[in-house]
Amino acid sequence: MTGTKASKLLLFGATGDLAQRMLLPSLSALAADGFLPERLGIIGTARSDLDDHAFRNLARAAVETHLPANRRASMADFLNRLSYQPLDVTAPEGFDALAERVGEAPGGLSIFLSTAPSLFEQTIAGLARVGLAGDGARISLEKPLGHDLASSCTINDAVAAAFPEERIFRIDHYLGKETVQNLIALRFANLMFEPLWNARHIDHVQITVAETVGLEGRADFYENTGALRDMVQNHMLQLLALVAMEPPVSFDAGPVRDEKVKVLRALRPLKAGESVTGQYRGGAVGGAFVPGYDEELGRDSEVETFVALKAHVDNWRWHGVPFYLRTGKRMPQRLTEIVVQFRCIPHSIFKQARTHPNRLVIGIQPRENITLSLMAKVPGLDRRGMSLRQVPLDIALADALSGRERRIAYERLLLDLIEGDQTLFVRRDEVEAQWRWIDAIRALWQEEGLTPRPYSAGSWGPSASIALAERDGVSWHE
Question: What are the pLDDT digits (tens) for 12-28?
């Protein structure tokens, strides 16, 4: 449910990479489309010693670099909303000047916190001391929210000391993507799918998040994180929860998140042989040779850049249905998709033709589309019986919803933060349920002495990941 619209937005990390690539362009686009409250002021803060004019120039350059020209209307209006206050969060006295710059926020204050998790506690304490965490303030947190359950609880406790749960907005930017939201619409706005969305009719589900990139200057972060914690713990488990959740009573924050957390708590702990890890070696991606992970890092490492898992949701709806998850770096293509594989028909009346089970493919990136494979008659005359073949019913969302702009995921999330709608944000019990499952996997790896298997850059990961699915008669969708 939407709350009171904020009259001030405070951006921590306002000169950083995320702000320049995503946040400032998103806010500019929202301003151009008339979605921002008329009097909303945007205050940026970071350690960089800038004044208002320099920050506006930085914002202009960011918008011109990362936002298409046809979405840059009213640039002057957006830039005039911006102001800037330098702040070193490790120096508590700096928060007094920040509070003075923020000033009164009669409609409430929304805070976007994009700083290192090690600085969260100091930042929250500083905000509370100068009165920027009062009843009208809400705060959003960008991942990573810890590296295990214990550290996540420490961060959440620090935030909860100043902000109650109804004013905490934890971001998973995948939930802002149009196709991810369309998954909810597909399931709960169409009578044809929900009666079939269960173990009786679905054979298995695949979720793939593949990246072509390597470290991209994130060596220190990735070396302390790995694929399991970087992608599975948040993005992929949120996608799994949306696929597997029961119908909520309404599309409001409480009911939606209640159903997601039930799924996350129902995840069966993995057993030996239900996971595969890998690390890329040198190979060809996009026709160009790229070095291996350890070469990019400059030293040997046992951090996984690929992980494949076979998960189960232990409830009535999904009993016996495996969920195959895989994610990796230096894959052949950039791809995020969900594949729902239906079961075979119980009996075929077509004696001369082979039938294939229906398959629903939900493409999230780079192409947003929904494809449903169906069996259809091959045109023509045939005395031997009806000939069949598999045909795709392909819905490209950009074409089907013509006239709509393709938006950055953060546009949706920033607007919901400003308006106080928590539906597409992650609740504390969700985060902690995710970490419990992930921590158990890491403990299993340690117990088994599991180390990453090598795979060539430009491939779909170690051959063991293929075997993980194929021993159940399943092939990865590629």
Answer: 999 999 999 999 999 99
Residues 460 and 433 in one domain: yes
Residue 333: give its domain's CATH number: 3.30.360.10
| d(C-alpha 434, C-alpha 90), whole Å | 30
CA distance 26 to 177: 13
The mean of the pLDDT values for the chain is 91
Same domain (yes/no): 30, 85: yes
Q: Would you name the residues annotated as active-site residues?
A: 235
Summarize the confidence of residues 360-379 as an average pLDDT.
Answer: 86
φ, ψ at 191 (rounded to 5°)? -65, -30
Judge contact between 101 and 42, C-beta under 8 A: no
Domain span holding position 132: 8-170
First CA to last CA distance, the chain: 39
Please give the tally of structural domains in the chain: 2
- Residue 416 is assigned to a structural domain of this protein: no
Q: Where are the alpha helices (DSSP H) in 83-236?
A: 94-102, 120-129, 149-160, 178-188, 219-223, 226-227
Regarding whether 321 and 464 lie in a shared domain, the answer is: yes
Q: Map residue 284 onto helix, strand or coil.
A: strand
- Is residue 359 within 8 A of residue 241, CB to CB? The reply is no
Q: How far apart are CA 243 and CA 318, in angstroms?
A: 11
Which residues, listed in sequence order, are joined to residue 144 by a DSSP beta bridge?
Answer: none
Q: Report the C-alpha dihedral over residues 230, 233, 236, 238, rounded to 10 degrees.
A: -130
C-beta separation of 254 from 262 below 8 A: no
Q: Identify the domain boundary among 130, 154, 170.
A: 170
pLDDT band at 379 (very low <50, low <70, confident <90, very high): confident
